[in-house]
Write a structure and sequence with these properties.
By secondary structure, this protein is of the alpha+beta class. The chain has five helices and 16 strands.
């Protein structure tokens, strides 16, 4: 099977990654490559989870004001991840990565809403996004069988240190919680196989017509500070943030698993896990119905963000840029909303 490599978002990653030749790879190399890839990918997941709710106004005002202050809208964008370790895993999988890009994007798209507070100067925002079934089917048709999974949710609370006036900007401090889960997968007709040495002989672990994919997940606690100033029909803004992410990423192979052309049994499964563990290699979660491996990576992502909104009556169009000090990645988003 050959999947056409697309230029857009991370379809390019899996379109290449899942175009696998039918030859055997080492389980040891696969695990080491997956661990390195997951470490790199997990480092940018907390950064990606902060897309959405980056409204130009550092504080939108009181809900009980005249007029009441609230807004609803949508935003979409992407953050980047360095591809070195992803390329290493793809090479282990037998993919020619000579023309693979040095960075790849991870997309995000959410619906979002924010309401002003009452009594105290604060506002509250919520966001959520997923891929509807019809859109998922369209993506699968366009990419030749590639499934794209995406789910995001989050909320924040911002407290205004300075409410702003004709001369002073608006300044706020905020805290939020974000969750993001995504993945790319496809079916590989024919099958795939991996070599395993138990210390006495080489064996072949094979998967028939497997569903293959990469997936990732993160939950973050986000702290941020923002300043903004309305100037006629424009509102420029700048901010800094620190997100602590509890993340994991990895791969999966869903299929009936055989061991030297016979159905794998519990003794063989335990031998694989014990042999890899004794060699200092994290064993995959392997059973008669599949192989998967996920690696956790918790840590901070420190970022700067800023941009400009165009304000036309009750319509706001936001353009935001972001930079991740933790790993040098960057991102951007475009948002449109109704706001009073």
């Amino acid at each position: 099977m050959t999947i056409s490599v697309k230029k857009s978002l991370s379809v390019a990653i899996l379109a290449a990654a899942l175009t696998l030749p039918a030859f055997s790879q080492s389980i040891e190399d696969l695990q080491n490559g997956a661990k390195a890839m997951a470490s790199t990918l997990s480092a940018t997941l907390p950064f990606n989870s902060t897309l959405g709710l980056n409204w130009s106004d550092a504080y939108i005002g009181q809900l009980l004001g005249i007029p009441p202050h609230f807004g609803v809208g949508v935003s979409a964008g992407a953050t980047t991840v360095k591809a070195d370790e992803i390329k290493t895993l793809l090479t282990t999988l037998g993919v020619d990565t000579g023309a693979f890009p040095g960075i790849v994007p991870i997309p995000a798209a959410v619906a979002e809403a924010r309401i002003g507070g009452f009594l105290l100067p604060f506002d509250i925002g919520v966001k959520g996004g997923y891929i509807p079934p019809d859109l998922g089917k369209t993506i699968k048709d366009v990419t030749g069988g590639l499934n794209l999974d995406y789910l995001a949710a989050g909320a924040d609370l911002r407290f205004a240190l300075i409410k702003g006036n004709l001369l002073l900007p608006r300044v706020s401090l905020g805290v939020g919680v974000n969750y993001m889960k995504g993945g790319l997968s496809t079916t590989l007709p024919g099958g795939q196989s991996f070599t395993f040495n138990d210390g006495a002989a080489n064996h072949i672990i094979a998967a028939t017509d497997p569903d293959l994919g990469l997936s990732w997940e993160t939950t973050t606690i986000d702290l941020k500070a923002q300043v903004s100033k309305s100037l006629l029909i424009f509102t420029p803004y700048l901010g800094v943030g620190a997100a602590y992410g509890m993340s994991k990423a990895g791969y999966f192979v869903k299929s009936d698993i055989t061991y030297d052309e016979n159905q794998i049994d519990n003794t063989q499964l335990q031998t694989i896990k014990d042999t890899l563990s004794n060699a200092g290699i994290t064993p995959p979660d392997i059973s008669a119905t599949g192989i998967s491996s996920y690696f956790a990576n918790n840590g901070w992502a420190f970022r700067a963000f800023g941009g400009l909104s165009l304000n036309i009556l009750v319509l706001r169009v936001d353009v935001t840029g972001l930079y991740n000090f933790s790993d040098g990645s960057y991102g951007g988003s475009l948002g449109v909303r109704f706001q009073l």
